[in-house]
Write a structure and sequence with these properties.
It is built from one helix and 18 strands. By secondary structure, it is mainly beta.
């Protein structure tokens, strides 16, 4: 009669392996900041305090509320680049940056718009047609030099979606960098506003997810 010894040997080897594993002395008391031979890296995080978009009148007082930075849950230092001249109309950007010991960085921003006294009589409210799409962009004045703009890209997908635009001096307009509830991070560039001849027109490149970099031209209705 033949005796099958292979399963028995397999079982014995399994018992030996279990015995070795159970009796192995593992030390999990790693030095602080490490796991085994690996070093733990804590990445920085930073968040702007207060509003990311601040709009103020020329000659007012701007007080920067700064940001809050952490690394590994502990408060960390940060640097600020950019400055604001509250006596001069314009759009100013502040960037707050924090870094960890390994040189990894995290940043957040604030945009400060100084509205000039020369725009107090301007009113750019009304509908503007983007003829290439047949879509309207509607401007509503909410304060001196400040407008709520619906469908800033002049696209069918933008109906009912809004950003804040400003006329900060003369006929200068822009969508200052901001976090729009409808679009996320937005801004504009290459802006013009022609208010001196008929028909009144304006143009800009609308920077938002999925909108590309084409110049968009609008005519007041």
């Amino acid at each position: 009669m033949k005796i099958k010894i292979i399963p028995i040997l397999t079982f014995c080897f399994a018992l030996m392996f279990m015995d070795i594993s159970c009796n192995k002395s593992d030390n999990f008391n790693y030095p602080a900041g490490t796991v085994g031979i690996s070093k733990i890296v804590y990445f920085p995080a930073i968040s702007t305090n207060g509003n990311r978009l601040v709009i103020m009148a020329q000659g007012g007082i701007f007080t920067d509320s700064g940001a809050t930075a952490t690394v590994g849950g502990s408060t960390a230092k940060y640097t600020t680049t950019g400055s604001v001249d509250a006596t001069t109309p314009g759009v100013y950007g502040l960037v707050y940056t924090s870094a960890n010991a390994q040189g990894n960085t995290a940043s957040d921003f604030r945009t400060v718009v100084v509205i000039g006294s020369d725009v107090s009589a301007n009113d750019y409210s009304g509908p503007y047609l983007r003829s290439s799409t047949g879509q309207l962009c509607n401007w509503t004045k909410t304060a001196t030099g400040v407008y709520s703009v619906e469908n800033p890209g002049g696209a069918s997908v933008g109906v009912g979606k809004f950003v804040i635009a400003v006329n900060y001096t003369g006929n200068m307009i822009t969508i200052p960098q901001q976090i729009s509830p409808d679009y996320g991070l937005v801004s504009s560039s290459s802006e013009t506003y022609n208010a001196t001849s008929a028909p009144i027109t304006y143009s800009w490149i609308f920077h938002a997810g999925g909108y590309g970099t084409s110049l968009r031209i609008f005519t007041k209705q």
